[in-house]
Design a protein that fits this description.
CATH class of the largest domain in chain A: Mainly Alpha
Mean pLDDT of chain A: 95
Keywords (chains A, B): Magnesium, Metal-binding, Transferase
Oligomer: homodimer
Strand content of chain A: under 5%
Number of strands of chain A: 2
Low-confidence stretches of chain A: none
InterPro entries (chains A, B): Isoprenoid_synthase_dom_sf, Polyprenyl_synt, Polyprenyl_synt_CS
Cofactor (chains A, B): Mg(2+)
Pfam family, one (chains A, B): polyprenyl_synt
GO molecular function (chains A, B): metal ion binding; prenyltransferase activity
CATH superfamily of the largest domain in chain A: Farnesyl Diphosphate Synthase
Structural class of chain A: mainly alpha
Distance between the termini of chain A: 31 Å
CATH architecture of the largest domain in chain A: Orthogonal Bundle
Chain lengths: 321, 321
């Protein structure tokens, strides 16, 4: 069996050998530009890991992984248009470099290209894979819509927020693992447990991401602290703080959010601390991580085969901060 | 066997009974709005006709027809954003009514919904249908890109133009017929001839559309005369005129196009006439119609079964003007 790093390299080799057409240039150049910006390829590697949990990696797992990665990149290109984001992975987004029209149509064709990778997998699994792929793709769109809706809605609670991140990011991680499992010949029960592992791991990861924005070590985190706070982003932390704050704390929090003073980030972090938000967030993350690990235990293969998945879960969800 | 009109009604009943989810409202309301604007549903009806040419209509033809119609509507929603079109079927376009972001994401989800209709067809045909659907969908995107590229390129010739309309509109008509034929159990040879019938018919139809813009009877045509001319649209007529015009005529033509005088439409139409464009366009249309009819003849079923397809071809490509 292979480690996450080994599979990342194997998938990277396969993926970079795939060719997009050359013409029309204005359609495919933006696709090529975006794909070569890189990315961690976590989703396709999860697909390979899901397959290998149950047996030798079949070529179909590479095809499905490619479909997943193309789909994921399509959503990023279109999300960047919707969010009017200028940079992605430190480079100009597609619409910034090529214009909105090019980004729109290049995203569209990338999504169809994703489906082209599915058409050649073994007939035996085609229907199941296509079903899960479609269901997940719809959910990702719904998650993106909820994310945009929630930005303008002050009544959302933690339940709404978790549902949104589940759709927007977790289900694709979960489905990547399950599609690999299907190709590996897993039983339906084991496939569903693996899906639940991925879904809960994804939620734990997002909660961690919210936590690190306020309480992370900037050097380790690799991002500036307080980016979400500056934008008044409705993270798990902010939702929790507004839920448990006293009236006086609520007043201070809203005041800090509205006034954008120089010490905004420090003020909000201080209020988070007063409201017990960091401890709460750590406990919530643990809760989802525990759920994830429970479902991994339930997958019916020898424990030794699960080692690499446990390792990557531990790597993604760090406990040492 | 059923006439085109009967199948339009049958498909309309099936299609309107399909339900989109209610939530998220901001995602699905724009989809519902656009689908209820109507449209002739030619493509799904072609799919039913392609099936019935070879046998009883199978429920799968309705599913595939729905996938085709959803895909077609997805392209219209996104094309309208790209073309900054305010109206479609006399009503506000999706982006005009709901904004660009909503139109973008609603189009995306509509396309995935299209693929959901494919996942439940008989396994036996799934791979072939998915292959043709994907190939065609990519071509439609490429056609849209070429259409936008050509608007800014003065060197395109008739060959480029025909290739563009083939991709942008004809291949989907052709594939609709062929997918129906596949479901009907047609041989590969007959399927390909039916595809070629649809492709050439689509090109003939587009050339007729260009012709009618300048030389049609406004009352019969249902559109204002000269819409393409006002926009300096590169139609088959304009490309031909610029190809055969004398230097003096070319000067007049370019002058009329650049100056947008009150009599622009009349001036350009007069120049088209001087260059023999109307006779040429009619002959070109006939040429593609004849190709289409040749391929229909080659489909290996009794001639009597082809009657309704001949009727609809005659209806779409009128000769009495």
């Amino acid at each position: 069996m292979h480690t996450f790093e080994q599979l990342t390299e194997l998938f990277g080799n396969y993926f970079s050998a795939q060719q997009l057409p050359t013409l029309p240039k204005n359609l495919y150049d933006p696709c090529r530009y975006f794909l070569q910006l890189g990315g961690k390829r976590i989703r396709p590697v999860f697909c390979l890991m899901g397959n290998e949990l149950f047996g030798e990696i079949h070529e179909d797992a590479y095809k499905v992984g490619t479909a997943i990665e193309l789909f994921h990149n399509f959503t990023l290109i279109h999300d960047d248009i919707m969010d009017e984001a200028d940079l992605r992975r430190g480079k100009p987004t597609v619409h910034t470099k090529y214009g909105n029209t090019a980004a729109l149509l290049s995203g569209d064709v990338m999504m169809i290209k994703a489906y082209q990778y599915l058409e050649n997998i073994q007939t035996e699994y085609l229907k199941n894979i296509l079903h899960l792929f479609n269901k997940t793709a719809v959910e990702v769109c719904e998650g993106q819509q909820l994310d945009m809706d929630y930005a303008q809605d002050n009544r959302i609670d933690l339940y709404d927020y978790i549902k949104m991140i589940e759709l927007k990011t977790s289900v694709l991680l979960a489905a990547s693992l399950e599609m690999g499992a299907i190709i590996g010949g897993a039983s339906e029960g084991s496939s569903k447990h693996l899906y639940a592992f991925g879904k809960n791991l994804g939620i734990a990861f997002q909660i961690q991401d919210d936590y690190l924005d306020a309480f992370g070590d900037a050097a380790k985190f690799g991002k500036e602290i307080g980016g979400d706070i500056k934008q008044n982003k409705k993270t798990a932390l902010l939702i929790r703080a507004l839920e448990v704050a006293t009236d006086a704390q609520k007043l201070k929090l809203n005041d800090a959010m509205n006034n954008n003073a120089d010490n905004k980030v420090e003020t909000v972090i201080q209020l988070f601390r007063e409201c017990g938000v960091p401890e709460w967030a750590k406990a919530l993350k643990e809760e989802y991580l525990n759920k994830a690990m429970y479902h991994l235990e339930e997958v019916a293969v020898q424990s030794s085969r699960k080692k690499h998945l446990k390792d990557i879960a531990a790597f993604l969800i760090q406990r040492d901060y």
